[in-house]
Amino acid sequence: MSIISEARPSDSPYIELVMRGYTASDGATIRPAESHWHLVLRKLSGKTDLLVVGPWTSAGALSYTEGAELLWIKLKLGVFMPHLPTRNLLDSETVLPGAACQSFWLGGSTWQFPAYDNVETFISRLAHKEVLARDPLVNVVMREQNQAPEMPPRTLRHRFLRATGLSQRHIQQIERAQQAADLLRQGTAIADTIYQAGYFDQPHLTRSLKRWVGYTPAQILTSSR
To answer: Can you say whether residue 31 is alpha, beta or left, with left for phi > 0 and alpha for psi between -120 and 50 degrees?
Structure first.
């Protein structure tokens, strides 16, 4: 395995997951589409960077270099940075400018790089200074999809695009593909996965997984074995 990592949950209202790891060798892989923003701390060849990783609109190739130490902060859906236009961060990794003494610039201020054990404090400070914000409507709508909020569709679409850079339907398609991939990894038959994840037929499932996850149903089943 080329990337060795561990993860822990978080009780922060802004954080979905905290992960850390390192790259044991050079390599490449297919990364899935992602509707969440990430902050990634990277230490490589004596240099430390903090990256803002915007949502990935589809699956794609990812390459990495041996010897990198990594800290991933996966933000909850609907968490964003108001001063950074989300549309400019889609499908990209933005390296924040460095400052002196193991710090970086963000939102017009300097910040110390976070560590695995103080991520919640770091994120809380960003939120307190309004460098980080969250739109709770996004999570409510995604969790209760059968109950439409009392607001014009255009307003709802604007709220989704501002907080995530993606439309509600786009996020739903990504999440359904992730659900189907998880079912296949658990050994669920393709026919049962089609039914449980709500696809029309196998070609529909295959197209979706290739676009959002990067692999066909057969490839996912084979790798899980």
So the answer is: beta
* pTM for the whole structure: 0.91
Domains by residue range for the chain, with CATH: 3-134 (no CATH), 168-224 (1.10.10)
By C-alpha distance, which of 159, 128, 160, 122 is closest to 10? Answer: 122
42-72 residue pLDDT tens: 999 989 999 999 899 999 999 989 999 999 9
- CB of 164 within 8 A of CB of 80? yes
Give the model confidence (pLDDT) of 111-168 as tens digits.
Answer: 999 999 999 999 999 999 999 999 999 988 888 765 667 788 899 999 999 999 999 9
The whole-angstrom separation of Cα 128 and Cα 131 is: 8
User: Sign of dihedral through CA atoms 132, 135, 140, 146?
Assistant: negative
CA distance 14 to 162: 16
DSSP string, 75-117: EPTTEE-TTS-GGGTTT-EEEPPEETTTEEEETTEEEEPP-GG
Q: What is the DSSP-derived secondary structure letter of residue 200?
A: S
